[in-house]
Specification:
151 residues; mainly alpha; Four Helix Bundle (Hemerythrin (Met), subunit A); elongated; binds protoporphyrin IX containing FE
Amino acid sequence: MKTRPLPCLLALLLLFPAASLLPAQPKTEAKAPETELHKLMEKNNGAWRKLRRQAADAASNAASLELVAALREGLTKALALNPAKADDVPAADREKFIAAYRTRLKEFIAQLDPLEAAFKSNDNAGAQALIAKLGARQKDDHKEFRRPEKE
Ligand code: HEM
């Protein structure tokens, strides 16, 4: 009997789709590796979340001032690091992208001064308003400087 290679191959592919013949990919490969900046930001996030929770409570103002100081310190460290997304932008635009990241980060850090002043003067409503503004800014900055998540 004559064998016909093409129909045989098609039948085989139907039975065993190509993907199932490939070695399984380890799950961790789908996730981008954690950068130093990512780890630093995660740490800042702890202080930020706590600060948001207690901003209205005047009895926590001394602790809130410590959180603002921790945020300032963490974000200042982030100034020395480059966003992972910098590797994705065309080489010709990279320097400009990194400079814009630093400018935005410095502006964010500067906004911690009025927040500190609000807690110092027990102006908790003012502190909450500043935190809302910073939250919106953080969202915009992440949109611009963070690598979009892969599907
Ligand atoms: C209160 C202030 C901030 C907090 C709490 C914060 C928090 C975080 C967290 C939790 C992550 C990692 C997880 C994720 O991807 O969602 C992250 C990533 C990142 N954030 Fe922030 N962020 C803050 C402000 C900023 C600002 C002002 C900028 C830039 C001007 C910025 C730039 C980035 C970048 C570029 C990444 C990705 C890390 C990488 O490229 O390796 N963040 N941030």
